[in-house]
Structures are given as C-alpha cells and as structure tokens.
Specification:
The complex is a heterodimer of chains A (721) and B (232). Chain A has 721 residues and is mostly beta strands. In chain A, a hairpin with a 5-residue loop joins strand 28 and strand 29. The longest helix of chain A has 18 residues. In chain B, a hairpin with a 3-residue loop joins strand 8 and strand 9. Chain B is elongated, with a radius of gyration of 23 Å. Classes of the chains: A mainly beta (721), B alpha+beta (232).
C-alpha cells in the first residue's frame, strides 16, 4: 500500500496544489475598522516623538523600547494591563551630567496612563497620564491628551493622526497658559530618595499645550512632526545638550511585525534614534500546535450487543485493573501524561489519577485521558473520575460521563455542553483498594546540565550586569510528595561582582549580593528536601528544609486553604532562615531570623489575580506586599507588586520602598510546542533590604492554581484537543 | 595550552553550552528551561521537512485507502489525509474523521468541515447543519453558521454568521487527470461584526458526492481547501 498520508507539513510546495483550486478570490477583512496599533514615543508610551498621544495600545500589549538623543538614553517597558490602563517602567542614563555627584545621571521611573475615552466617529481618543509618578522627579509630568485618526485625508495615502494635549510639570515648561489648578510643585532634586507617589505635585503648577501630527504613509513607513512643551531645564542648565527649537521631526520604519525603528531631529540641535519592540501575549510568534488526540471510541448499542455490557467481571475487579493499567499507562505516556494510579471503583466507575508536565492547560490532559478510557474501559463503565495531580498532590476530581463524550464532541457548542454535564470538585486524598500503580513511578531521578545566567539590573553604574556559567541540576523523588533537589553552579564569566556595595541601615539581607558574587565561583545554588501533601479536603501542606536560595538556608513550612472552585485562597508560611556564607557552599553566617507571612489570593476573573502577604521580612521589618497579575489563557503573566513595611524610607534608602514588575513567558508561546515551563523575570528598579522576602522553592499556590477547577473552566475548550 | 588541549576544551565547552538532560521528569530549573527551548529550536530548524509525494493518477489508482488533499494558503500548507474513523452521530448523521501521519485530524460531513484537531487555532465545534443541508440540496432561504475556534490566549472564540447560498452552475472539475461533472455551490455568510466569507462546494451531479471545497475556518487559518483524491 502506498500511504501518502504520512506528511502534513506546511510548505511552499502548496503553490502547485493551490493552483488546482479554482475557487474565486476570497476576502476576509481582519479588523478592517480598527486603527493599527499606536506607535511609541521616546518614553515608550503611545505618542509622537517626545510627546504622548491619546491612544491606548491594544489590550495585553507588552512593548520594549530604547530611545536616545543628546547623550540621554531611555530604556522603557510598557504593559497595557487592561483595555484602559497601562503602566511603564523606565531606566535612563544622562551623560555629561557632571553635577550633584554624578558624571552620568542614572535613574528609574514609573508611568501610569488611563484611557478616558475611546476614539469614535467624531470623538478623539483621550488619555490622562502620570509620568515619573514615583521617581525622583526628573521626568515628572502629567498630561491630558487627545488623538484623532483620519483615513486618507485630502486624498493622501495612508492615515494621519492629529494629537493635541495639555501638560504639567516637565510638559508645562514652555508656552504655559498659567496654572489651571493653581499650586506649585517642588523642584527636581537629583539626590532625593524618591520612590513614593508624588501626589502633592500632580497637575500642579503651570500647564502648557503640545501637539503634533503623525502620517503613516503605508504599512511600513511613517513620519512625525511635533511641537514640544518640554524645556529640558535640568539638562540644558547642566550642558547635557543645547535646545534651540520646540519642533521635532522624525521618520519611522516598520521592520517586521514586532520591530519598528526611527530616526529623528530634535529640539533644533540633536539627532535621535529609537527602536520599538512590540509584542502581545495574544499573538504568539509560532502557533501552538498539538498532534490530534485519539478518537473517542463509541460503545456498541446495548440492545445490539448486550454481552458487551456484562458485569460478570465484577468479582475480579482488581485483576481487571491490573490488566488494564499496563495497557493504559504507556499510551498516556505517549501523550505526555503520567498515570499515577488506576482504580475500578465499580463496574460503572473508574478513577484515573494523572499529572502532566506537557500541558499548561490541564483540560488537554483531562480530555486525552478520557478519550483513552473510552477505548479501553469495559462498556459498563460509564463514569470517568479523572483526578488531576500536581506534584503528587491530588487537586481536582473531574467526573465525566462516557455517554457525553460519545455524543457531544461534534455537537454545536461541544465544550460548553460537556462542561455543563461535568462535575468538578475537590479530589479525595486516598485511593481505594485494588488500585493499579505503575511500576517505576517511584523513585524517580532527573538531571540536567547546561548554561545559566544570573542578571542584575539597574546598578548605579551599569543598567545590566550578568554572570554566566554552567549549572548541574538534579531532582530525586523517592516517594509520593517527596522531592530532594539541588543545583550546583560554576561561574565562567560575569561582572555582577563589580557592583558597588551600598551601605544599608537595615541588616544586609539583599544588598550583600555583590559579596555573594565576589566570593563564589563554584556554588551550591540550592539543595533542599521538600515534602508536600494534601492535609484536608481543601488544605495543602508543605515542609522544605535546606539551602533554599542563593543567600539563605533554613526551614520553611506552609499551609494553604484552597477550595478547588473558590476565588479565594488563604495561606500561612513560617520560616526560620539563616544567611549563607558568601562562598555559597555549606556554611552559614551569624545572621538568622524567623520570618513568615499570612497570604490571601483572590481570583478576580478574566485572568486578574490579586495577592496580599502580611508578615515579617528577612531584615526583620514588618509589613505587607500587594501584587496584581494578569494571566492570559496561554500562560503569559504580567504583574506588579509593592511592599510597605515599618522600615522608613530613610532606612530603606534609594527608592523608599520595594516595588517592581514581573513578567512570566510560557516557553510554549515561544516554541509552539507544549510544555508547562515558563521563564519568569522579576524587574525591580532597585533591590534593597527592606521588604525582602525569603525565596522558597515550590510554594503551594503557584503550583496548584493551574490544576484547580477555576483554571480548568477558564480554558475548557481544550478538553477536545 | 596545546592545540589538542584547546580543541578538547572547546569541545567540552560546546557540549556544556548545548546542554543535556536525563531522567523521568523535566527539570524545573533555568537549565531545564534552556534545554526545552534549545530542543524546540533544533526540531524546528534542523529537521528535514518530509518529502511530499508527486501525486499522479497512477499513484492514486494504486492506493488501497481513500485520500483527501488539504491546502491552507494562509499558512503555505499542504497535507494528504486518510480516513481515521467513520462514525454515526445521533443528530449529525455520518461523520468522517480524516488524519495525517502525524495525527492532525479533520472531521467532515458531506464535505463540510465540522471540526479540526492538531492544526493550531482549531475548530473546536460548529453548527453547520444549514451548510450540510445546502450541500445536500435541501437549502433554506438562509441559515446560521457557528464556528467555535480555540485560540491561544482567549480560549474558545465564537463566530456567528448568517448564510445564503446559490448555484454557480454546472461545470467539469478535473482532479489529477480525471474529470467529474459537478455543480458549484457558493455559500455566502455575513458575520455579526459585518465580516463576509464565501465557501464553495463542488458537488457531483450524479450522486451528490462533494469532491472539492474551499471553506473559511477562522481568522488565523483563513480558508482551507479540500479535494478528494480517492473516494471511499
């Protein structure tokens, strides 16, 4: 037989085959009515060149940009947190500052923007923005700005957008119209600790108009012209650069779907450049693909084949389980699913405990397990209890009717129909008698060797420092719930050790990082024993002991109350931590502390999760950490956090309090191949000792959330994949 | 350091940078993540694409199983499928599930695409009863069409359309050196958001068999063309 069905690969060879299709040209206008994504200004927010515009980026957009002119470079990250709210973080360096104790002035700043009105047929898009809202104030400004798009105006090709706004602070320095809200604002102080929201100066002082035009000539090429209201007083007074005009012009080119570059002439004196890298979690670079599942095998009709429904095997239930288990286990393994146990609870009900390291969305593991059970279970078995395990902990029981699987797959709205008839509840801890447990499930050992990098951001002298080397990781699972893991590192290159140590009024629990880098080339990054288990119907427990992180070792205990279908989860964690020797081998230093937190997690829906942790931090300060993350169905997560403790801003030092953003990118988004792994990047403007929390591996909530009933419901459509 | 020692050091370093792993689980460290990405890139960049057969009438005549050709212009895609299973559905009637060698599946009824699996951005489920009736010559004046598409970041996204159909006349369709008398049926659908799509079906005038189609199955895949190379 010649099997020509062996290949399914997208290829240019389609051209010949497509020519055979004589269908007329077809069209589908994708978002024809929607304007293209706004371009960014030098501050990394929607805008012209140096001035902001009124539009918002598409929901979920994550934009990285770098701009430079007149000896000043701005590196920006902007995230469109919701359709109306966005936040930006910025790191800047200004060369030739030569005053206030700095040759080159470096700083970090945060912005927030709110879209007041979406663009309508007549109405422009209107945004209000706070620039450098919590920094030392060099870029402190507020604005209200409107932008209107015009398609092919005056018979010109492309699209023109017109922007006009009113700015305060830095944006109210040139051509001001007075102070609409009166008041004054404090002068910029380069040596201020900064970090706290500058509410006393928002929209105070003089306001000045600004505006401009952007002409997007075609899909690739655009030009910009703007009238700036920024006098650049701190810069020009220190001879960082000269300014002789309020007019800026520029041209931009869209290199690819993600990358846009531009060249500009600013303030009548300076050439500038920018690069904008704009991505969106909703638009992966590679489509997520997964080989099709096994078909649902339907049972013969009971009337036509009554013998198939015989329950004569009931007395030998255990033996049947022992026969079926070894058949099912390797087939599930092919699908990236680990069978942890199989039990025929009765002649009508089977329980399969499964886990997966392949699927971010556990509905896929549920669906594929159920499909296999339709092909292997006796016809009398009509209910499949599939129990999702996470790190050996049973989390959620999904009870599916076999008849529903047989009947619903190709019905309209199949996913909703199946979900409506499926029960999701808390998984029982114990298995019934006569359970099949695959051989080789325990003990298990895994290892990996390869490179590592340890970045360090926003040092006062360098924006990024990096150590790199080779790491050896091992994970040993001797029994259910037990994990012995460790990582050995050897640094080959790097410059984190060159980071200047800065004095701290608190115990140096994090500011000692350069000392750890200086004294450790071959290091034990982690080495710990972890035990976790289900302590009650909705309660989970964890104990961890050993070298928990690079700087601390100790003992950590955690209890988490997390009903599988609840928005709210509560946890308590208590730790005894002791600072490790700087060489990061087996020794400890004298500093130790009892630290711990009470935590509340709340799922607001739509992917928004809030978290509050109240307790004692590593430096002995008491306070709370507040965080909000937005998680997309494909696993992307972007969020922000801040910590307020009883450490004063003077004790904390530069930045006043701990805060930052964190981005987690699922690797399957990058590769298009299924995996549960993700890369997480916490970005802090500065890491000080106040509000520093012990880093403990395997905290429970992040582990278990993907397996709870709410997570399953959120992307249940994949149960058919 | 001698040349041999330098070579050995470079070899060891290259091995360490490329990394390796073993055991039963995916290691959760940074190194484990790195190896996952490297492995995916290697699969994507260095795997030879499979050779596609040169489809001739002689080849098709030698086949012992039916064959379906599918193209997706938006993805520059071409695939050949064989039947996986045929099943009776209580309300939809007979469904034909076709598969590729690597497990991608397409479910058809009377040539109408009901579902896809393994393509990425798949058709999770549909309501295409009106389209099926149209192809089978039992069209109403207009009918609903619903596509539930599994997207990467937003879960299942529903597209609802209202459709009308018309015959574009009889013609002769050639498929790999063989001709068939067909009627070209055109289905025009307008979505709730004003989007307009057009599906075509080439239906054998003798027995109603659908030989060839062109159907829109979502924003990311766009149009998918099917062509029966060898009939069941």
């Amino acid at each position: 037989m010649t099997d020509i069905a062996r290949h399914w690969k997208w290829t240019k060879a389609v051209a010949a085959a497509a020519a055979l299709i004589t269908a007329p040209a077809l069209s589908y206008a994708e978002d024809a009515a929607a304007p293209p994504s706004p371009t960014l200004n030098f501050y990394g927010v929607p805008g012209l060149i140096d001035m902001p515009s009124g539009e918002a980026l598409p929901d979920g957009t994550l934009a990285f940009s770098v701009s430079s002119f007149g000896g000043q470079t701005r590196t920006n990250v902007t995230f469109q947190f919701s359709p109306r709210i966005s936040g930006s973080f910025r790191y800047i360096s200004l060369q030739d500052w030569n005053s206030d104790g700095f040759e080159t002035y470096r700083d970090r700043s945060f912005d927030a923007r709110f879209l007041l009105a979406r663009e309508g047929r007549i109405r422009p898009a209107i945004s209000v923005g706070l620039q450098d809202l919590a920094g030392t104030g060099i870029y402190a400004a507020e604005y209200v700005v409107a932008t209107k798009n015009f398609d092919q105006p005056l018979s010109l090709p492309g699209r023109i957008k017109v922007t006009a706004g009113l700015g305060w602070g830095r944006l109210g320095q040139l051509g001001d119209i007075g102070a609409p809200f009166s008041g004054s604002r404090p002068a910029f102080d380069p040596n201020d600790n900064g970090g706290s929201p500058s509410t006393d100066q928002w929209f105070r002082g003089p306001a000045a108009p600004f505006g401009g035009i952007e002409w997007q000539v075609n899909d690739k090429f655009g030009v910009k012209l703007e009238y700036s209201s920024d006098a650049y007083a701190p810069e020009t007074s220190r001879d960082v650069f000269e300014r002789s005009s309020r007019i800026n012009i520029g041209a931009e080119y869209q290199v690819s779907r993600f990358l846009r570059v531009g060249g500009y002439y600013l303030y009548g004196e300076e050439l500038g450049v920018s690069a904008q890298l704009v991505t969106n979690p909703k638009a992966p670079p590679r489509a997520f693909t997964l080989a099709g599942p096994r078909p649902v095998i339907t049972r013969p009709d009971r009337a036509a084949a009554p013998e198939a429904y015989s329950t004569g095997w009931a007395p030998a239930k255990g033996k049947v389980t022992e026969q079926l288990g070894p058949v099912i286990e390797p087939l599930l393994r092919e699908d990236g699913i680990r069978l942890e146990s199989l039990t025929l609870l009765s002649t009508a009900r089977v329980e399969a405990r499964v886990s997966s390291q392949r699927y971010t969305n556990n509905a896929i593991a549920i669906g594929r397990t159920a499909r296999l059970l339709t092909a292997t279970m006796p016809a009398t078995v009509d209910t499949f209890d599939i129990i999702l395990m996470q790190g050996s902990i049973p989390v959620t029981r999904v009870s599916l009717s076999r008849s529903d699987l047989e009947q619903l797959e190709f019905q309209p709205g199949a996913a909703d129909l199946l979900l409506a008839r499926t029960a999701l509840d808390s998984a029982p801890s114990d298995t019934a008698p006569d359970t099949y447990v695959p051989e080789g499930l325990y003990p298990r050992f895994s290892w990996a060797i390869g490179p590592f990098v340890r970045p360090s951001f926003f040092d006062v002298e360098e924006p990024v420092r990096v150590d790199a080397g080779i790491a050896l990781t091992g994970e040993f699972r001797p029994a259910p719930g037990w994990l012995i893991a460790g990582e050995l590192r050897h640094r080959l290159v790097g410059n984190v050790e060159d980071t200047a140590t800065s004095p701290s009024k608190l115990p140096a629990v994090r500011t000692s990082a350069p000392l750890f880098a200086q004294e450790g080339d071959t290091t034990i990054e982690t080495l710990y024993v972890n035990r976790q288990w289900k302590a009650g119907k909705n309660t989970y427990a964890r104990l961890t002991a050993g070298y928990l992180e690079q700087m601390f070792g100790g003992v950590s205990g955690e209890l988490l109350w997390q009903p599988t279908d609840s928005r709210l989860a509560l946890g308590v964690e208590a730790n005894y931590a002791r600072q490790r020797d700087f060489d990061q081998q087996f020794g400890f230093q004298d500093y130790d502390i009892f630290t711990g937190h009470v935590s509340a997690y709340y799922d607001f829906g739509g992917g928004y999760v809030g978290q509050v942790d109240v307790g004692r931090y590593l430096a002995g300060d008491y306070g709370a950490t507040f965080s909000v993350d937005r998680t997309f169905k494909n696993g992307w997560s972007v969020g922000g956090f801040f910590t307020l403790t009883d450490a004063t801003s003077e004790e904390f030092g530069e930045g006043s309090f701990d805060k930052g953003i964190r981005i987690s990118i699922p690797l399957q988004w990058l590769t298009g191949q299924p995996t549960t792994q993700s890369a997480t990047f916490p970005i802090r403007p500065i890491q000080r000792d106040g509000g520093a929390r012990l880093s403990v591996p395997n905290r429970l909530y992040p582990q278990l959330r993907d397996a709870d009933a709410r997570a399953l419901r959120e992307d249940w459509g994949r149960v058919w994949e | 350091m001698t040349a041999k020692a330098r070579f050995a050091a470079a070899f060891v370093l290259a091995g360490l940078i490329s990394g390796c792993a073993g055991g039963t689980d995916v290691v959760s460290s940074q190194t484990g993540r790195y190896l996952t990405v490297v492995g995916s890139l290697q699969n994507g960049l260095f795997q030879d694409p499979p050779e596609l057969p040169n489809v001739t009438r002689a080849l098709l005549d030698g086949l012992t199983v039916p064959s379906l050709e599918v193209t997706v212009p938006k993805r520059d895609g071409l695939a050949y499928l064989v039947p996986l299973i045929t099943r009776q559905d209580a309300t939809l009637g007979q469904l034909d599930i076709w598969r590729t060698g690597d497990g991608t599946q397409l479910t058809l009824r009377s040539g109408v695409i009901i579902a896809s699996r393994g393509l990425g951005d798949d058709v999770t489920s549909t309501d295409r009863r009106g389209s099926i009736a149209f192809v089978n010559g039992r069209a109403a004046d207009n009918w609903p069409l619903r596509l539930d598409i599994q997207t990467s970041a937003e879960g299942v996204v529903r597209h609802d359309f209202t459709c009308t159909g018309q015959s574009m006349g009889r013609q002769t369709l050639e498929i790999v050196e063989r001709t068939f008398p067909v009627e070209l049926l055109s289905e025009t659908c307008v979505g709730d958001n004003g989007v307009r799509i057009e599906n075509q079906y080439y239906v054998d005038t003798r027995d109603g068999h659908v030989w060839q189609t062109n159907q829109w199955i979502g924003e990311n895949i766009g149009y998918m063309a099917t062509r029966v190379l060898k009939k069941k």
